[in-house]
User: What shape does this take?
Amino acid sequence: MMFSDMEIQVREVNHSKLYRELLERISRRYAEGQAQAVRSVNEAIVETNWHIGQYIVEYEQKGKSKAEYGSHLLINLSRDLTLLHGRGFSRPNLNNMRMFYLRYPICQKLSNKLTWSHYCELIRISDDAERSFYEQQTMLENWSVPELKRQKETSLFMRLALSKNKDEILQLARSGQAMETPKDIIKDIYVFEFLKIPEPYKVSEVGLEERLLDNLQAFLLELGKGFTFVGRQYRLMINNTPFRVDLVFYHRILRCFVLIDLKINEVKHDDIGQMNMYMGYFAKEENYEGDNPPIGIILSKEKDDLLVEYATYEMSSQLFVSKYQLYLPDKEELKAIISNQLEVAEE
Assistant: This one.
């Protein structure tokens, strides 16, 4: 049977299309299989290490209520298990397994979304509520181990808890940070230690903005889940007068623009009025159908709470003034503030 050139071309196109579909199906299934294998291996490692920790603790306790922890037990176990099985049984790793069991005494409550490396970071947190928060938030935001470590070091849990009452703090510990209202994405204090700007070195507003964008990935991690970058020095034209918003983001979960202005000194009342104007402009001129009202955040080095209270009187509840700092927070100071909040709530 003879085929015309046109028929041959059609057959070749169809064959090429079918072949591409075959490649895509195989590749997709292969990737799914690899991911499933990784999950299975990780789940097995986590469960195995939990049981090893269980065996160590049960041996130490010997049926007693308090552990008689022998100082040489882990040293001996490390030596003998390494001889029998090779790597993976260093004394620090065995101690992690032991602590893992003590922190998580119920195996069924372990998550297959977290790796052994994640759990090694979590077990270092002694406070149950704080550890629960970081566990939940790691799963919600799919944090890598370095991201989890960074959020721990910057005391994210305590910074979020600063503006919450007792019930909200307990809910934060149980479920992580919700993303349902504008207030949920705001921190009282933002930490920009990743910029590595030494104190008391002073950086200009333009310089701070440039450094934040040079470290956009770390900045987005500090802002939290859902932020996508839109633009810098975003130009507005109002009655032939140009204005510029320092940084503009869009929040995918809340479906709204987030406008950020940076202030290297104390925030003033006219800064608040200007941000309110920016928010009005975006609500009228930039929002598309389905977008929610914009959120405005003024990030300042210093903040007078009373001035902010008066300057925002009866103003949009979506305008926030927060502080930023260029160094890691004092954890003990934050812990004391949170403890005091909880004690006041009990009275």
Q: What stands out?
A: The chain has two domains: 1-124, 179-346. The longest strand covers residues 227-238. The two ends are 94 Å apart (CA to CA).
